[in-house]
Task: inverse folding
């Protein structure tokens, strides 16, 4: 099924079941994939309002802000996700990315490392840390302050 048909199906579902947080989360993720950020934000914030205990609702809202280069808002949502589930490492490496974008390099490295420490077998977290260390070793951030 193509994404537009999936969006239409999920919109019908959310109309029939307005309290279905999972449907809003899936709808928001699809909107993100097709870069409809305003629609994604609306759906994802609705999912969060319906189920604030689901860490991924906060992570996806943060991701939406990140994709729009709003590093401060994205960071706020990733910190919310960490408060919801301190043992879920994805919010840590997402937060590290925000810190890196804001040139807060010590914090970025701390959170990349924390993501790997929480889940040492997570290939995404390990790849993010490895890329960070490679950029750092190349001196990409020399002379930049954090």
Result:
């Amino acid at each position: 099924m193509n994404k537009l048909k999936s969006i239409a199906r999920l919109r019908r579902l959310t109309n029939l079941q307005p309290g279905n947080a999972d449907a809003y989360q899936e709808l928001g993720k699809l909107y993100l994939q097709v870069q409809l950020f305003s629609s994604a934000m609306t759906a994802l914030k609705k999912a969060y309002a319906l189920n604030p205990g689901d860490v991924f609702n906060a992570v996806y809202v943060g991701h939406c802000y990140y994709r729009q280069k709003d590093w401060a808002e994205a960071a706020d949502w990733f910190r919310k996700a960490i408060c919801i589930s301190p043992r879920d490492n994805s919010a840590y490496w997402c937060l590290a990315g925000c810190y890196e974008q804001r040139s807060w390099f010590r914090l970025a490295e701390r959170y990349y490392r924390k993501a790997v420490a929480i889940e040492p077998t997570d290939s995404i977290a390990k790849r993010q840390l490895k890329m960070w260390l490679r950029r750092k070793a190349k001196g990409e951030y020399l002379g930049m302050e954090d």
